[in-house]
Amino acid sequence: MNLTVISGPQIREVFTNPAFSASDAIESITRISSYFNSGRKSNRNYGNHVIQDLVRDTTRYLPVFTPKIATLMEKGLEKGIGHSPEKGGAQLVEAPFPMIRNMLVNIMANIFLGPEIAKNPKVIDTIWDASSDLRRAFINSSIRVSKWRAFLDRTHLRLFQPLMKRAQILAEAATPVVLERRRLEALANESGVAWERPDDVLQSMLEDSSKYGFEDLEDVCAHISILAGAYAFAMADTATNILYFLAAFPECVEKLYEEVQQVLDAVQAEREQTRQEYRMEGKPIDEALDPAHDRDMSVEALKRMVYMDSFLREVFRYRIEHLRIVHLAMEDVTLSSGIVISKGSAVISNTRSVHHTPEHGDDSAEFRPWRYAEKHKTATKIGPDYLVFGMGRRACPARFMNIQGLKMFSAFIVSKYSKLEIQDPSRTKAAIHSRLNDPIDTGVNFYSRA
């Protein structure tokens, strides 16, 4: 694969030109469709958009999933990190990445399959394996893949069908639960009462099977393996890196902690005012206004954390690899600069040319966590100056769920711990500049607030 580096205005030109394809480039590098087709029975034609549609549809349920994610994340952090038994002592986590990924695998199993199915240890192991499959595909692949290597990879997937094995395990665990759901739904319909519908992704995908073209439960579970595994490995990478940034820039911890408390105080006061108004008007106070949930990490509370959002956007901007996001030319293209990209050749973006420019400030080479706090540029806001999630119609639809999960993760960390330290200080620079999906091997010390 011939490779041309593009910079500055040429990047936008390539991103908005339909003659260039990012998905075809990813396929040529990772052979990812061969992995998908080793398990799914439908949507096997290359170029279908079912995975993207599922991601977008899942994002719509974020308000429903958020309380569950918050509860599971808080429990997961308590189990994975805990607190030092000594006052002022530190709790060392020697391997943050697998700890975080294990927590996220459990979260994804619960919101995609429901708590009953997620209780099965085989299910948790299977989602973990699915996340490992995808991580290997994106880490071990080289831009310059030989035809022989690509042939071997595809042959291996056809012979061993790893995704099919994942789907079969999940389907076996899900079958009795799905049958019981159908029984209860039929019983409710016969009795003329409302059925208490499970609010997990599995139920939505089963109800919309014809829309997505799924053939059976195994097929549904293959797609769940892809989605849950992808979210787990992608979010675990960035969440781990966030820990290193909080340790490398300790002044961020208190600022973020103060914002979290101020936001939760404001939400709590507003909810109490609403309850008082309800009492004055004689209205019943429903479960949604239960004081026990006043300080939850809700969608509304997370949305108000503008300094947290700025911190995340700056972590992405500062950390992102300088050469990334490959596009394949589907026909001969002449760029405005006069450079000719021939059909079958690839271009790779020099993101430094847009992420480290005066547009971000004269100090764009430095890490400035509050750079975007007053600029109304959120961590999900894409554009020619921020290529973390792509641009235009090809932008990553999973960014909304990822960013909300990362904001929640960061809010819990700064709320529970007053200071973080990298176990090996000499690895600090390597930690904050680590390659995507390739975290370094040093631990983190967590100093508890209480």
What global shape is seen? Answer: globular
Which structural class matches the secondary elements?
alpha+beta
What sequence of helices (H) and strands (E) makes up the elements? EHEHHHHEHHHHHHHHHHHEEEEHHEHE
- What is the class in the CATH system? Mainly Alpha
- The CATH H-level homologous superfamily: Cytochrome P450
- Give the tally of structural domains: 1
Largest sheet: 4 strands, mixed
Describe the structure in your own words:
The chain has 450 residues and is an alpha+beta fold. It has a single domain (3-448), classed as Cytochrome P450 (Cytochrome p450). Helices cover 57% and strands 8% of the residues. It is built from 19 helices and nine strands. The protein has helices at residues 9-15, 22-30, 32-36, 50-59, 62-80, 96-113, 115-118, 121-139, 147-160, 162-191, 201-207, 209-212, 217-248, 251-281, 299-304, 306-319, 352-355, 399-416, 428-432; strands spanning 3-6, 20-21, 90-93, 323-329, 333-334, 340-341, 346-350, 417-422, 444-448. The strands form three sheets. It has a four-stranded mixed sheet with strand order 1-7-4-2. Strand 5 and strand 6 form a beta hairpin. Helix 5 packs across helix 18 (399-416), helix 8 (121-139) crosses helix 10 (162-191) and helix 13 packs across helix 18. The longest helix has 32 residues, at 217-248. The model has no long low-confidence stretch (mean pLDDT 89).
